[in-house]
Amino acid sequence: MKRFLFFSLLSILISGCSSSDDGRNNNPNLVDINFQYRLNIESAEFNQLQFPGNQVAIYYEGVGIGGVVVYNVNNDLYLAFELSDPNHVPNPDCPGMTMNGIEATCSCEDNVYNILTGEQVKGNGDYAMKAYRVEKNGRFLTISN
């Protein structure tokens, strides 16, 4: 009887931990790419990330799909979001979104998103911005998917 209860509980735990989206973004417009980018917040290029309330847009090839924006919330918490508009398929005629304060704007669709929450604040669409992981280790931030 104990063995049956053990395996029943184990089965419930295993099935309870799995989900249909396995933590991935179910947005059909943005593919899941694997990348990792490490930046030094003390470098001239990224030094504004040493201060809460500042953001940096990174448009390097291989960093996200159409670029990534990184935002310093409080020197311990950093946020990063994809700069491709999540409500249409990326294409060469419509580059990554541009930043204006805490808002990211798609010039092709006039969609506007808040980079603190990723939520759309203007325009039409069903999807929020794609979030990435940010890990801080001393003066380095590692952004990854």
Automatic annotation (TrEMBL):
State the PROSITE patterns in the record.
PROKAR_LIPOPROTEIN
Keyword terms: Signal
Signal sequence region = 1-20
Organism superkingdom: Bacteria
Provide the protein name. Answer: Ferredoxin subunit of nitrite reductase or a ring-hydroxylating dioxygenase
**Species assigned in the record:** Zunongwangia pacifica
